[in-house]
């Protein structure tokens, strides 16, 4: 355990009067030259002149409040860092796609309503994701790799394709083949 000085003052509750406020611990993180480098409890202990136990208690309190993140890096080692908050870009929804693509899927002309329509939008979304992952695909590829997991209430692969492919053609970044049986291309979204 770290060194404790016998002349530290205590308050009427027996606690040390010179308690370390959490903002002093955050100050250790802010004072680093390299803001990306995580810190150890030893780093904090040395910077504040406190015990290892106090450093751990403060770091854990800040982690619980969400001010710090932590990760175990060895059998008995742990590091802490200030999490970087990424700004929310209104043009990139939570599905990671550009807003224009998400809107196009949401408004695509697909048959059905309610849960059926929602399942068909998910099927269209899966077909789009497939083409984004495999930028040169044939109809047979979509039927083999997408239809079975996203049949969306269609009884046949052909019926599914007849509903999905006209909507897929309309999505941004999709370059449909000029003739039947040729390759679909993904140009980016």
Which descriptors apply to this entry?
elongated, 3-stranded antiparallel β-sheet, 5 strands, mainly alpha, Arc Repressor Mutant, subunit A, 7 helices, disordered N terminus, 2 domains, 189 residues
Structure characterization notes:
With 189 residues, the protein is mostly helical. It folds into 2 domains: 22-81, Arc Repressor Mutant, subunit A (Orthogonal Bundle); 99-186, Arc Repressor Mutant, subunit A, CATH 1.10.10. The chain has 7 helices and 5 strands. The protein has helices at residues 22-30, 41-48, 52-64, 99-106, 114-133, 139-147, 157-169; strands at 69-72, 78-81, 136-137, 174-175, 184-186. The strands form 2 sheets. It has a 3-stranded antiparallel sheet. The chain has a two-stranded antiparallel ribbon with strand order 1-2. 21% of the residues are buried.
Strands, helices and their partners?
Blueprint: H1 22-30, H2 41-48, H3 52-64, E1 69-72, E2 78-81, H4 99-106, H5 114-133, E3 136-137, H6 139-147, H7 157-169, E4 174-175, E5 184-186
